Amino acid sequence: xxxxxxxxxxxxxxxLPVANAGAVDLEVTHWWTSxxxxxxxxxxxxxxxxxTEHNWVDGAIAGGSGAANPVIANRILGGEPMGATMMNTGRxxxxxxxxxxxxxxxxxxxxxxxxxxxxxxxxxxxxxFEGRYYCVxxxxxxWQWMWTSRTAFEKAxxxxxxxxxxxxxxxxxxxxxxxxxxxxxxxxxxxxxAFGVLETGxxxxxxxxxxxxxxxxxxxxxxxMGKIIEAFGAAREFAADSAVQDWNQATNLVITDQAAxxxxxDWAQGEFSVAxxxxxxxxxxxxxxxxHEILDTGxxxxxxPVSKDAEVEAAQKExxxxxxxxxxxxxxxxxxxSLPVRNDxxxxxANACMKKGLEILKAGNVMPNTEQLNNPDTEGRLEDLxxxxxxxxxxxxEEAHKQFVQIMSEAE
Length: 412
Fold this sequence. Notes:
The chain is an alpha/beta fold. The protein folds into two domains: 18-141 and 298-364, D-Maltodextrin-Binding Protein, domain 2 (3-Layer(aba) Sandwich); 145-296 and 374-409, D-Maltodextrin-Binding Protein, domain 2. The chain is built from 17 helices and 13 strands. Strands 2-1-3-12-6 form a five-stranded mixed β-sheet. It has a four-stranded mixed β-sheet with strand order 8-9-7-10. The longest helix is centred in the middle third of the chain and has 25 residues, at 188-212. The radius of gyration is 21 Å and the shape is globular. The two termini are 18 Å apart.
């Protein structure tokens, strides 16, 4: 059931719990369950437990946003809300905010000073509704990366690629050496996310904005978009032998040099870090596939479901303030592999790839991601399309292109 229907059916009967006075055990839901992600979220828990009188109760939900969002929405609407919950930076919580189910934290955001030092101008606008703030972004995560194993390319007798086209040229040699050219897990969001990276890397930002922001159907139906879909069709052949399920398992194929490359967001850096890999030595990173060095400004944000208990609300606001404080931003993002939401923090300890991302951010080479431009229904239809195309090789690029144009013509 779509969220709008769930709100209509359940919101009227939602009953919010009353917690005990004093220190609060605040349940925090998220979907950070891989090794790198767990190390990162532990920094939030540590800060909350050490710097307040309250206690972080971890509510990890495996399976990513697709599995977690329905659980989160059902609990909030069903009268069993958590104290705080992570959701993607974008429009995922839009209808719950409109329904008055999320806490207004405008006072926290404004008092933090973060609006004067946003790493990406306008980032906090994603948390705004009718002039008020209802969430705090905690990082800038970008999908726009490809990660490569230096050892894998050395084994194949070719230089590590500097861009997508050099990678494609190296594929025959990689296959001859018994190396999987492209690592890709079986989860649907991985292949659909990879399409977005190809779309930006090969087509550029102007094309993407024409389609998703301006709803330019001529651009959506054009030859350039057709070539991108053809490249995506080739990519599914490169990943044919990548028989793993989870994204971090695919990352591990690159870490262990069984695969040459992976298209994945910068959260992959957390896995490289946990494995002791060194950027620029063991692995390399290609933002924008080495062709268009730009980052989208997606990421993770925390929302705070409304509570009738003043103690719970106070604890929620303390957590919100901590999440965007300079010290906690550094500790979390160094582990997560993402970029901080504020530009007044010291990231001297960042690795080579993270510093490359910071340079791109500093230059202002950023764009919104599609989750900030499309509503969840359109995002879901697009994900279904690219997943079906990825796994069903009987679907031609031409057929997929026609379906893409149809979806975008109906997008709200």
